[in-house]
Amino acid sequence: MSDVQPKKGPTGRRKVELDPRLAAYKGVWVFIEHQRGVTHPVSWELLGEGRKLADQLGVELAGVVLGAPGPSMRHACDEAFRYGADLCYLIEDPVLANYRNDPYTKGLTELVNKYQPEILLLGATTLGRDLGGSIATTLATGLTADCTELNIDLDNRSLAATRPTFGGSLLCTIQTLNYRPQMATVRPRVMHLPERGAARSGRIIEEPLGLVESAVITKVLEFIPDELQEQAQLAYADIIVSGGRGLKRPENFQLIWDLAEVLGAEVGATRPLIQAGWVTADRQVGQTGKTVRPKLYIAAGISGAIQHRVGMESSDVIIAINEDPNAPIFDFATYAIVGNAMQILPALTDAFRQHLATAKCAG
Amino acid sequence: MHIVVCIKQVPDSAQIRVHPVTNTIMRQGVPAIINPYDLYALEEALRLKDRYGGRVTVLCMGPSQADAALRKTLSFGADDAILVSDRAFAGSDTLATSYALAAAIKKIREDMPVDLVFAGKQTIDGDTAQVGPGIAKRLGLQLLTYVAKIAALDLDQGEITIHRRAEGGVQVLRTKLPCLVTVLEGINEMRFATMDDMFRAARHPLRVWDKSAVGIEDLNKIGLKGSPTVVAKVFAPQAKSQKAQRIETQSGAPKDLAATLLTKLFTHHPQLEREIAGRAL
Question: What is the pTM of this model?
Answer without folding.
Answer: 0.89
